[in-house]
Structure formats: structure tokens, C-alpha cells
Amino acid sequence: MKTIALYMRLSNEDAHEGESCSIGNQRALLLDYVRSHGEFDGWNILEFLDDGYSGVSFDRPGIQKLLALAGDTVNCIIVKDFSRFGRNLVEVGDYLDQIFPFLGVRFIAVNEGYDSGQGMGSTAGLDVSLKALIYEMYSRDVSEKIRSVKHAKMRKGEYQGTIAFYGYKKSGTEKGRLEVDGPAAEVVRRIFRRAAEGITPTAIAVELNRDGIPSPLVYRRENHTDSGHSWRVAGDMTCWTRENVRRTLCDERYTGRLVSHTRAKEDVSAKISKLLPKEEWIIAEDAHEALISKELFEQAQTVLRHCRHTKTPQKPYQRFRGLLKCAYCGKALSKSGKEAYYYCTTRKVLPEAPCACVRIGEKELEESLLESLRIQVQLAGQPEESRQDGRTEQSILQEKLRECQKEADRCKARQAAAFEDYAEGRIRKQEYLSRKGEIAARQDEITKQYKEISDKLAEAAQSKNRETVDLGRYAFVKELTREMLEELVKEIRIGKENSIEIVWNFRE
């Protein structure tokens, strides 16, 4: 008995389109198609579905089960349209033009009026390409609609963040609403009260660390509210700092005012967002329970403004600004205005931290850097052969690249041989699929290796160019300038006992 496979897929984006895209409606459409075509009378019907999976990739449990049976158990596959099967034009085309015809599997897309049994297996490439373009445009349109819906919810005072900000937690009963998180809320109130009393952010941070109060990051981790998220921090020193105290004091949301849409992407497909002008922010008054009064908030702002006004102005010229980092916490080092030395400010808020020993004089720092630079110049002047046992780094990498290419060619030959063996009946389908899977896995490994070697080769070429061309200019340098440091140095890490680790721009 022949078998029909009905495949249905519903992604998260499709959910916004309502009932028309539901699994139930897809099933009704496909069953109606089967019943209306007498040629399928007596055929066995199997259903395969993926609920909540994107069509961009074929890494879906339902489609994988279906493809494993194609050509063996399944003789015909029916879908609502091409986009249900997949949105990747290249992969969809491979299945329609090559794989399914070879396996003897008929493919039908109902809404497109496509039937490989009627068209001799041709996908009408131009038509499919146009449909793929339409699907891409559709995806972008859906994204825009989702964004519009979110903005509307923001204006109504509904919180759209992934997790609640410090002092609050998401409501367990009402979507988009925030509830007061008791322990964290009390810390927020304490910070504002102390600021209103004239206590500086640095002094507040010292108090909180001394009393063992977890920082917002640590608090989220301890309470498992950041599950599924990877929070990037400068180092392991996740304590209260002047900066996160200041951020708390400047956050209007603690007055019950919900400020949203402060950042946005220039395009739906963009990965990086930018800060928007304040006039474009979305603000909702009394969106959630306030932790502090507006009066207390303003008192804190007055103290903050005073702190900023009384701050010692930074000298306009600092050669090492932004380059010096603490080897323990990763924070940028600050310069003493009187004694010309650099230190880690973490010791101000956490005296017991290892950062307390990070301190280096400017003169000693410059001498160490100049000596390290002289060594780099000498290395650049040496023949590469003397450092690579007669072989340059580039020649070794190029040889590895050639080996990868040879291995890739061997995989193609093995793939063709397996296909020929299967087509001529020398091996069964299961063995062919097993061989194909092994070869594909090896090809993935080779592709990864090829990319890694290519990247290293490009870096080696760049490094060689910098060493032989740029570094020669600094052979007799006696004093470092800001311009030189920006060109040569990426980062300088200072540890205890004046240990120095230099990350050069021209080598790893």
C-alpha cells in the first residue's frame, strides 16, 4: 500500500497571523485535497508536524522523521505551501530537484498548485525563487507588525523586557505587568535614601559590599531569574560599584514611570541597536508600583549633580587612557592626579579584593613598554625561517590548506561512489544513507578546519606585514606618544607586583 505524508509546520511568527496558519487549518486543507483527488483512494495517510519551529533550518524533529521515511515508506509528500516545508531556497531546491526525484517521492504544494508528478519533477526555478523572495518579504513584514504591537503595549504601560529590572519581578498572573521584588526593592530604597542624605555613590557601594548585599547581577543568578541568558561582565568581580549605584539612582522607572524604546535597530535585520533621542522614547506614567517617591528621586538627582560638579576634572592629555586594565576584574585603571601612578578603583568599594594591590608608576610603566617594544622590533627583524625550523608560518598553513582541499575532494569522490553503488543496487538504502551521513559529517569538519586555517593565514600575513613594515620605524624610540600607543597596543593588563601583560595590535 502506498503512503502519503502530510507535513504541517507552525512557527512563532505564524502565531500572529491567527487561525489561518494553525496546525488544525493546515490539516483540514491537506485532508480535503487528498479526499478531492480520487487517485489517492486507498492510500495510507501519515501526519508529521513541527509546532513552534522556524522554516529557515531543516533541524526540526517532524521533518527529520519524515525525510528518514521518504522513498522507503513514504511515496508522496503534501504541504500547504513551499514555506511550510522550508524557507531556505537552496535546501528546498535540492530536495525538489534532486533528492525527491531520485527517491521516487512525489511532492505537492497545494496553495502553489505545484505537483512534481504533473511537471516531470521540475520545480520551475524562477517561480520558486520568486516565492522565496516573497516569503522573505513576508517575514520582514511580520517582524514590523510584531514591533508595532510591542510599541502599542509599551504605551499602555506593559513591560516588554525579557527579564524584570532590579527591584521588580514579572507577574505570574498578568502578562506585561511588574511586581515588587521585596528584598531587591528594599536595597533600591536604601540606595535612594542614602543618596538623599548626601552619601556619594562610591560610599554607598562600599556600604553595600561591606554588608554582603549581592549586586544586581549576582542577585539574578542566585534567584535564577536570568536562566537562558549569558551576562557579559568585565571579570569575576561582580560587586557593587560606583557605576551600578549611579545607574540605579538615575533610573526613573523606580518612580512607577515606565520608560521604554530607548534603543532601536535601524533595520529589522540589523543586529546592533542605537540610542534614540529622548523625544522618541515611549513613556507610560504609573505603569507599576513605585519603589520611591518622585520627591526622593529628585533629591537624589540633586546630590548626583553636585558630585559631578565637584569631581576633579580629567587632564586633557593622558597617553594611556583606556589602554590600562586590571588583570583581576578587567576594569580600566585610573590615574592619580598627584603622584603619577595608575591603580584599580575596585579597591575603593571592595578593599579586600585582589585589585587592591594593582598599582604601577607611570615612569616604570613606560620603561617596561619601551623594553617590550624593542624585543618585538628585534623579533620582527629575524628571518622567519629561524623561528619556524626552516619553514615559515605561512608555508605551514598553506600546506595544511592544501591538505584540507585534498580531503574535501576525496569526500566528494566517496559521495559519488556511494550514490553510484546505491543507484546500481550494490548497496541498500540504509547503507547509502549511513555512508552519506558519515561523509557529510566529515565534510562539516573539513569546512570548519579550512575556515580556521584560512583565518590564521590571513592573520599571519597581516602580522608579517606589520612586523616588517611598521615596527621598523620604532627601533630607536625613546619616548611613547599617544599616537604610537593607539597604533601598537590593544590592551595592557596590570597585576600584582607590577606585572604587565601587553596585548599588541599586530599579534595575538
What would your notes on this structure say?
22% of the residues are buried. The chain is of the alpha/beta class and 508 residues long. The N and C termini lie far apart (64 Å). The chain contains 15 helices and 17 strands. Residues 120-126, 227-236, 383-390 and 465-469 have low confidence and may be disordered. The strands form six sheets. The protein has a five-stranded mixed sheet with strand order 2-1-3-4-5, sandwiched between helices. The chain has a three-stranded mixed sheet with strand order 12-16-17. Among the domains are: 3-144, Resolvase, N-terminal catalytic domain (Rossmann fold), CATH 3.40.50; 168-310, Putative Large Serine Recombinase, Chain B, Domain 2 (Hect, E3 ligase catalytic domain fold, Alpha-Beta Complex).
